[in-house]
Amino acid sequence: MQANPRVARQLLRAHRYGALGTLSKKFDGHPFTSITPYLVDFDGSLLILISGLAEHTKNILHDSRVSLVSHNQEDPRIQTQGRITVVGHAVHQPDRAQCGKRYLRYFPEAQTWYALADFNFYRITPLALRYIGGFGDIHWIGNEKYLLPRYPLMQEEDALIEALNRHPALVNRSATLLGADGDGYDLKVNGEVVRHGFAELTLTANAARAAILAE
Question: Which helix (H) or strand (E) holds 50?
Fold first, then answer.
């Protein structure tokens, strides 16, 4: 069975929290894990907002190698549900405002931390991913297959959000479009973020708009 990189991206995009593993500076490289929110960006890399005072940040500044495991925290069947581990490097992102624009739509509660100069964005770019879809469905996926190259929706997302959040199809459902990427889109409905996958890879705002309104 061939590994499907799109399924792996969809699994990561379906969740917003994970266990971040770093290499301890204090304890000579011993694994150190902590819980962190994350946002999967357009290409499949992960954005995290972390404090310079946090132990995991100190570890990253000492050694950028990290891993992050994500799964459905609401499902107690840990051994049978899909889960994924990202192995890569965490790199500080200097364009704080650009990262924050999208991140804060998904995590508005992070505005307090974002306002503090001590908090900064780091991007986790995968080297490889360990995907477990269930019993016997276990694969390594390389970044050359997983990461998406640049596509038009990256620049068109803001206009798409503005247009669709005025559209009766969303207004009548009291739904707000938070964002869209090549794999799907996220709606906020009654305070809950709901992920919807596209039937196929969708790389332009026009195609995304048609797919969203067809739901």
Answer: strand 46-51
CATH topology for 5-146 is: Pnp Oxidase; Chain A (2.30.110)
> 89: which 2 tokens?
């490097």
Domain boundaries, the chain: 5-146, 153-213
- DSSP secondary structure, 91-138, as one string: EE-S-HHHHHHHHHHH-GGGHHHHTSTTEEEEEEEEEEEEEEEETTEE
Q: How far apart are CA 87 and CA 84, in angstroms?
A: 10
Fold of the domain built from segment(s) 153-213? Split barrel-like (3.20.180)
> Does 11 have pLDDT greater than 60?
yes
Q: Is 190 exposed, middle or buried (0-12, 13-18, 19+ CB in 10 A)?
A: exposed
pTM beyond 0.85, yes or no: yes
Query: Tens digits of per-residue pLDDT, 132-179?
Result: 987 778 999 999 999 999 999 999 999 999 999 999 999 999 999 999
Residue 124 tokens read as 């986790």
CA dihedral defined by 97, 101, 104, 108, rounded to 10 degrees? 100
Measured CA to CA, the distance from residue 215 to residue 213 in angstroms comes to 5
Q: pLDDT, tens digit, for every residue of 43-96? A: 999 999 999 999 999 999 999 999 999 987 666 676 767 899 999 999 999 999
